[in-house]
Amino acid sequence: MEYPYAQETQSEPLMMKAAHVLLFLFLSALSVRAQTTFSDVHPVFVTRCYSCHTLGGYGGLAIGDSNINLAYSDSQLPSYYSPGQTKGYASLIRILDGTMPLVGGCTGDPTVDAGNPACATAEEISLLQSWITDGQLGPTPSTGISFCDGDGSGTGCPCNNSGISYSGCAHSASELGARLQASGTASLTSDTLLLKGSRLPNTSAVFVQGTQQANGGLGTVFGDGLLCVGGSLVRLGTRIPSGGIATYPQPGEASVSLKGLVPSAGTVRHYQVLFRNPGSYCVPATSSGSNGIRITWTL
Ligand code: HEC
């Protein structure tokens, strides 16, 4: 007589178990790594392809233009080189088959090409592969303007250890260099500005704010990398990065404008992540930095 009831109570936990297993698989798939967006790969195209692929560039492709929206929309046009695919997809194919970049003698094999400044590195190629695998996602919103990049456009990196565009100099944990990105609203009345450092060594990092740019925005040599901020400095927060990532502020911390004592609307401030670059890399000093970000605060 009790059988139907027993069956019912038994089937419910089973269903829940299955749901939990599915949820677990879903969450663990998500936690493997963050999705790679065009914001992540754009610096690779700017660094390697800029000379020929800006607005009106060869092959109808502006993938290396500093205007990220233009670069992305061109990456989504149909390719003639890889029919049925986008030009963004064809870009990876042509890097790997050694036909792009056109000049520089790259083979597409990063171990053979190592040390040739024209060629994409292994870390860059794997970033492009992730972007393709994740579905060629568009750029994520960003705030402020990058300056003092360790890509050779400003002061050179101390050991010729250039990173890619919108990043610092190469360091022991990343040949691309550490990157600072800002998102949210730099508003004094509703400050949601979020600073995110990525490709950091998981040792020690500090977010700093400066009233000025070092060396007029070109940066000055600082350990293994460049110092981008100058003037009166505020240390916003120190971090032990995890998976190379650190952010400011974290929940419960003062907003950037409060901690940085930004006085009024129209004020310009400059931000950078400085960090320890463990092990002997480049010079004996173990310090290095990301690119800088210039922010104009509004009301
Ligand atoms: C020195 C100049 C030069 C550089 C640097 C260069 N390209 Fe090109 N690219 C060209 C020329 C010229 C064409 C058109 C002829 C051709 O397709 O071979 C072209 C065409 C292309 C196409 C074909 C577009 C299509 O519709 O299929 C892709 C993709 C491409 N380039 C990707 C890249 C990428 C990615 C880089 C950087 C890693 C790069 N190129 C760097 C000169 C260059």
Strand and helix map with partners:
Elements lengths: L2 H29 L6 H12 L18 H8 L11 H10 L13 H4 L8 H12 L11 E3 L31 E5 L10 E5 L6 E9 L6 E3 L2 E3 L1 E11 L6 E3 L7 H4 L8 E9 L10 E3 L2 E5 L3
Antiparallel strand pairs: 1-11, 2-3, 3-8, 4-7, 4-9, 5-6, 9-10, 9-11
Helix pairs in contact: 2-6, 4-6
The chain binds heme C.
Heme C binds next to helix 2 and helix 4.
Which molecules other than protein and nucleic acid are bound?
heme C
**N- and C-termini, Cα separation:** 72 Å
Order of helices and strands: HHHHHHEEEEEEEEHEEE
- What percentage of the residues does DSSP assign to strands (E)? 15-25%
Average pLDDT: 91
Q: What is the subunit organization of this protein?
A: single chain
The structural class is alpha+beta
Care to describe what's here?
By secondary structure, this protein is α+β, with helices and mostly antiparallel strands. It folds into two domains: 38-133, no CATH class; 145-296, no CATH class. 26% of the residues lie in helices and 20% in strands. It has seven helices and eleven strands. It has helices at residues 3-31, 38-49, 68-75, 87-96, 110-113, 122-133, 256-259; strands at 145-147, 179-183, 194-198, 205-213, 220-222, 225-227, 229-239, 246-248, 268-276, 287-289, 292-296. Strands 1, 4, 7, 9, 10 and 11 form a six-stranded antiparallel β-sheet that branches. Strand 5 (220-222) and strand 6 (225-227) form a beta hairpin. Helix 2 (38-49) crosses helix 6 (122-133) and helix 4 packs antiparallel against helix 6. The longest helix has 29 residues, at 3-31. The protein is globular and about 55 Å long. Residues 48-49, 51-53, 58-59, 61, 79-81, 87, 90-91, 94-95, 100-103, 120 line the site of heme C.
